[in-house]
Amino acid sequence: MTNIMPGQRPVNPQFSSGPCAKRPGWSVEALKDAALGRSHRASIGKNKLKKAIDLTRKVLDVPADYRIGIVPASDTGAVEMAMWSLLGQRPVDMVAWESFGDGWVSDAVKQLKLKDARKLTAPYGEIVDLKSINFDHDVVFTWNGTTSGVRVPNADFIPADRKGLTICDATSAAFAQKLDFSKLDVVTFSWQKVLGGEAAHGMLILGPRAVERLLTYTPAWPMPKIFRLTSGGKLIEGIFAGETINTPSMLCVEDYLDALHWSESVGGLDGLVARADANAKVLADWVAKTPWVEHLARRAETRSNTSVCLKVVAPAITSLPAEAQAAFAKGLATVLDKEKVAFDIGAYRDAPPGLRIWCGATVEATDVALLTQWLDWAFAQEKAKLVKAA
Question: Cα(269)–Cα(246) distance, rounded to whole angstroms?
């Protein structure tokens, strides 16, 4: 902790947890070949959309018998599409330990009104007892809790001989953590997370067991057109070949293609995971030697390497009323924003007061290291204000 302002700012102050930082060296020049002013149904549009699907499969190492589709409304649309299309045949375990997982629980219970929905939840910083999940049921869970910084350590808790489907929201995990597709029947994510793409497009990956469910089960509720994956009892295969349900932004598609090509240039999935791990380690090493801050995620093995959530633990702050603690944490984020050091690093609105720093693959470890110096400086500034006001 120091009152002396650091002499160097991060080169890229983009530490938002979504939309996230663009890849290093990005500029609008990367979008010069976008198919603007053209129909996405023309061959140029279809080819680019199909290329996005093919590169996604290659970089993420998605099995050949899994279908990949580009769908509307970001990760939210992809998760909702899966839930509305697949749930209801058997009981479901809704598993959550952060805001977005809680949202899926609410939708299953209040919107779909599933009578056999079992809720398994854990407070921020914790994870549910994974052994308590019943895989004879369908299971909906987030791989990485974007708003809590808590992730599953691996897929070992999922049995290979499960009877139900596993629906995994992997939006802040895909491209930074290794997903075991053999244990996942549905995987969703959005472009604007780990690869720093633009918003509004979701990815829906369906394994053979999910496809079988689609072909043999019809939900009891009306299905909005934007969620329909089958027609006449058959899968709409075009969705998984670049024929999107609604009109995509070809500018966003070009940006996603650029990010995928960059991913290949840094070593594919292994390279992306290594970059995120390195970024998170810089932050973890700083936390370990800094007495005023701790990880919100209590256990190292379930701690995210992308959306790293921190809490202020200095006694001078934790002794304050809850409202004052929240104001202090907000002050840290605000002063760094004003100094153009780190943008959008306040905790998510539903999460405990604190900071949330994105450490995904498009961030540079050198920038994270510089940020830690500014965090110490910001803490000293905000604490001095408290002392002066006392």
Answer: 29
Amino acid 110 reads K
Q: Is 195 helix (H, G, I), strand (E, B) or coil?
A: coil
β-strand pairing of 293-295 with 150-151: unpaired
User: Which of these, 45, 62, 75, 55, lies nearest to 262 by C-alpha position?
Assistant: 55
Contacts of 99 (CB under 8 A, 6+ apart): 146, 147, 148, 348, 350, 351
Buried b (16+ CB within 10 A) or exposed e, 276-286: bbbbbebbbeb
Spell out the alpha helix ranges (H) of the chain.
43-60, 74-86, 99-106, 208-216, 250-265, 268-288, 315-318, 322-338, 365-389
**Helix/strand/coil (H, E, C) string of 308-367?**
EEEEECCHHHHCCCHHHHHHHHHHHHHHHHHCCCCECCECCCCCCCCEEEECCCCCCHHH
Structural domains in the chain, sorted by start: 28-263 (3.40.640.10), 268-389 (3.90.1150.10)
* Residues 327-382: tens digit of each pLDDT: 999 999 999 999 999 999 999 999 999 999 999 999 999 999 999 999 999 999 99
Give per-residue pLDDT as tens, 80-94. Answer: 999 999 999 999 999
Dist CA 334 CA 357 (whole Å): 14
Q: Are 194 and 17 in contact (CB under 8 A)?
A: no
Question: CB-based contacts of 279: which residues, under 8 Å, 6+ apart?
Answer: 305, 359, 360, 361, 363, 364, 365, 368
User: What is the average pLDDT score of the chain?
Assistant: 97
User: Which 8-state DSSP code applies to residue 303?
Assistant: B
Q: Residue 358 half-sphere exposure, CB side, CA atoms within 13 Å?
A: 29
Is 244:73 a contact under the CB 8 Å cutoff?
A: no
pLDDT at position 390 over 80: no
Cα separation values, 325 from 49, 316, 343, Å: 47, 10, 20
Helix, coil or strand: residue 297: coil
Distance CA 50, CA 73 (A): 19
